[in-house]
Every structure is written in structure tokens, then in C-alpha cells.
Amino acid sequence: MTLASFDRVTHRFGALTAVDDVTLEIPEGQILGLLGPNGAGKSTLLSLLQGLRRPTSGAVRLFGGDPRDPSSRMRLGSTPQETALPETLRVGEVLDFVGSHFPERVDTGELAEQFGFDDLLKRQTGGLSGGQRRRISVALAFVGAPRLVLLDEPSTGLDVDARRVLWDAIRARHAEGVTVVVTSHYLEEIEALAERVVVVDQGRVVADDTLRGVLGRVARSRVTLRTTDAGAVIALADDAPAVTDDGELTLMVTDSDAFVRRLVGSGLDFSELGVRGASLEEAFLALTREPEAAAEGGVR
Q1: What is the pTM (predicted TM-score) of this model?
Q2: Contacts by 95-100 with C-beta closer than 8 Å and gap 24+?
Q3: Fewer CB atoms near the end CB (10 Å): N or C, the chain?
């Protein structure tokens, strides 16, 4: 069953085209990862689904209706990039207040335990850390027993341990039947959560496939090794892109099997040989042609 869809949707801000002729369906039961560089149109797509904007052309449908109709949004949960909570209310009061606006809701204690803040229920939100507030903000997207949840950069500001607790909670809600769309600049997050990956660049969908399918779009493999003659090894790889870091040589080769055979047959000195397929980051950079993002360790 399709929960939401875009049918040839375009959205412009004056002369700027943020979303360009996008057709996309979100079926029930998936965790969909939405990727793209800054300004690619990810947040605009989510705002169209939430009824916060109307398309310049094309049609957006949510549960079969217009997202701008409040009745269409009753089974939709969302978390924006920015966290804003009423500072004088206790955490439990915030969850109860938001939950009271829905015909069905998830129990406050259950949600707090799942998202790892059951010890904070009696604390005022104004006294919480940014990471604690972020976890509560994400949990609020699930309090109304939604069928579809939109998470825009959900783990922003969280440390590694808190991020993994959040991922476990999202997986648990998904296992209970919630469909999730998540944007993230942590590619590790998309690899950990998503079953399907949609890559957006300059307002257009440039890839829509399973995680494995998107990774398969990069025809190169990463080979790492240590050698005393890096120049000769690179020559064996037909001058493939190569980087040396602290004595370790990394090459991106099109045919790793053929390269390893040539390397072994050459008699060149090498050790600590490793071969693996492309990472999601490498696939993303290849699809969006944003090599400068690699130096920043991620994308937004």
C-alpha cells in the first residue's frame, strides 16, 4: 500500500527550482533513506509531504489526500532539523500534551524507555542537554501512533552511543509497523537504518534503489595495502585514483580481482592487503558529483 507519493512535482522559490519534476512513491513498511548534498531539495520534499508548502506543479498525496488537509496528517509524525521544546514543562508533560492531540497514542513510559530517557520524565526540558532534547524531539514524532514518520537529520548533536540508542528505537518502532523516511548527513546512519535509498541532487532523483543497489552503482572497489614501491603498484592499477596515508596505499580500482592477480604476479613487495566494495559515501559522491564533501567526512 502506498502511504505517500509525488507525481511530477516541481517546487520553485522564485527563480530557484528546489524540486524538479520528482515522481516518487513511499510504500508501507519501509525505512527509506533520503540523501543529497546541501540544497539538493531533501527538506523541501519533506515540507511538501507535511503540507507546509504547496507544489508549483504536480501532485503530492498523503494517505490518499492533500497533505494540507489536517485530516490527512493525523497519522503522520515528523521531527524537524531544529529542536524546540517548551522549557518550563517536564518531559513527561510534553509527551502527554502532544499525545493528547491524536486519536491513538503510544504510552509515555513505553516511548521514554525505548528512546532511553525514562529517567528524565520529571525533568524540565529547559534544563536538558542538546542531545537529550534531540532524543525527546525524535520520540515525539512517534507519540501519536503514526503510520508514517519523517525524520530530518534525527541524530544531529548526538554522540556515538546516543546515536545507536536512537537507531535501535527507530528500528523497534519500524518493527511495530511504522514506515520511516529519514534524511541524514551521517551516511553510517543511512547504512544502519535504510532498506531503500533515494539520492537527490539539484532537485532531481538521481538514484532510487535498495541500499545494495545504490552501492552497486559504483563500479570501483577499494584496495588497501602497504608497500615499499607505491609508484609501481599504482602503475599496475592502470593509474587508478590512489591515496597514501601513514604508509598505507589506497586505490580505487575497477576490477579488484584482475589487479590482485597482477600484483601477486609482479613480485612487488606488499603486505596487509585488503579489498572491499564501495561504501555508501563513495556511491553518494559518485552519484552527486560532490568530491569536495569527502574532505569534510560527510554530507548534508
Answers
A1: 0.79
A2: 95/121, 95/136, 95/139, 95/140, 95/143, 98/140, 98/143, 98/144, 99/143, 99/144
A3: N
Banded model confidence at residue 213, pLDDT cuts 50, 70, 90: confident
206 touches 200 (CB < 8 A): yes
pLDDT number for residue 92: 97
- In 3-state terms the chain splits into helix, strand, coil percentages (rounded to 5) of 35, 30, 35
Q: Is residue 285 part of a domain?
A: no
Provide the domain count of the chain. 2
Quick: pLDDT tens for 234-271. Answer: 999 886 778 888 889 988 888 889 999 999 999 999 99
Q: Say which residues have a Cβ less than 8 Å from residue 230's Cβ, sequence separation at least 6.
A: 242, 244, 249
Asked whether residue 230 falls in the same domain as residue 262, the answer is yes
Indicate the average pLDDT of the chain.
Answer: 90
How far apart are the C-alpha atoms of 109 and 191, rounded to whole Å? Answer: 29
Contact 190, 280 (CB under 8 A): yes
- Averaged over 215-228, what is the pLDDT? 82
Residue 202 main-chain phi, psi, to 5 deg: 55, 40
Angle between the 130-140 and 160-175 helix axes, to the nearest 10 degrees?
10
DSSP annotation of 124: B
Do 82 and 14 share a structural domain? Answer: yes
Please state the φ and ψ torsions of residue 217, each to the nearest 5 degrees.
-75, -15
**SS3 at position 91:** helix
The share of the chain scoring above pLDDT 70, in percent, equals 95
